[in-house]
Amino acid sequence: MTARPVLVLNAGSSSLKYQVVRPDTGRSLTRGHVERLGSDEFAEALRTLSEELAREGIDQTSLAAVGHRVVHGGQQYVSATLVDDDVLAGLEELVPLAPLHNPPAIAGIRQAMAAYPGLPQVAVFDTAFFADLPPAAATYAIDAELAHRLGIRRYGMHGISHEYVAQAAADFLGRPLGNLDQVILHLGNGASATAVRAGRSVETSMGLTPLEGLVMGTRAGDLDPGVLLHLMRVGDLDLDELDDLLNHRSGLLGLSGIQDFRDLVTAVDGGDASARTAYDVYCHRLRKYVGAYLAVLGGADVITFTAGTGENVARVRRDVLAGLDRLGINIDPERNDVRGGPARISTDDSPVTVLVVPTDEELSIARQVAALLS
Ligand code: ADP
């Protein structure tokens, strides 16, 4: 694997995260975050970035490539892909599947092509880890012809993180990935659960879009589709209002007015009733998914918590897995009092091992870029 560093760009709707990382050692040479960008400000952001990297003494002629996080690869892009004009056109065609997430990634790729014309640009997809989800898990039970024509199926998201964490959990346990059945709970601002058998995803909670599944900062997760019909018919919401409600004003924020989990916990401790409800709905949904995925796998060897909330909020881990000893899950309260990790938080004799494993999406991207280039 190349020792030359990879510049990893993660362009969100209003921010640009970057990191220069060596894929072989995982060493990060620098990282940073440019916030509150308008869509036409990416060019400026990348120019600033290049100057910033120079100031920090990063030799940009030594870079192996630029790796880009792209949320939705649709059915075409099922692994890391070298970007050329054809691929860019293909990514444009996928925008309807991810209207909030793919356009900034495409803008980032275009600008990086201009800023670093000599470097390979590689797209790494959040959906790729789920490309071979079993059809029974990937298929929505709607009109099959219509679904086929419009590409409606479950694609899954956060795959870059789930794939990385599955391997990191196996490494931490010193066991081959191929021998493990795992449930991975990625709990950040967005949140998703995945069942992994022998390193391959067999079920995941996000679907056509990142709206399905767990309760998130501003997204409801699972919802009776009849609620949408009701909101349109009786609540008089139009498409844009529904889109805004579902993406930006639901989830923890919609229930309690609080999006950030740190603030939510503070409010719960202060006796705020709506924060308590939000917390309980969040944990209950997670617990349902743990149970479902244990059934999908026929029991698991490992359950792993990752991302901001998963890595840092011990009480969520405790409350989600409390009282599940009949399912072979025994948390050790003292071990659970951990932030970060990797760490084992189950008891030594717990049939299911429970871990906290920090995710590292940038390193995962850099490694996928290096693997493609070699
Ligand atoms: P994303 O990458 O989706 O923005 P993160 O993985 O950074 O998400 O997680 C963000 C969430 O994690 C926020 O709700 C934040 O409150 C929570 N979080 C991060 N660090 C902590 C912490 N030290 N204690 C409690 N919650 C935390």
Automatic annotation (TrEMBL):
Its cofactor is Mg(2+); Mn(2+). It comes from the Bacteria. The record marks 158, 219 as: Transition state stabilizer. InterPro entries: Ac/propionate_kinase, Aliphatic_acid_kin_short-chain, Aliphatic_acid_kinase_CS, ATPase_NBD. PROSITE patterns: ACETATE_KINASE_1, ACETATE_KINASE_2. Its EC number is 2.7.2.1. This is Acetate kinase. Gene3D superfamilies: 3.30.420.40.
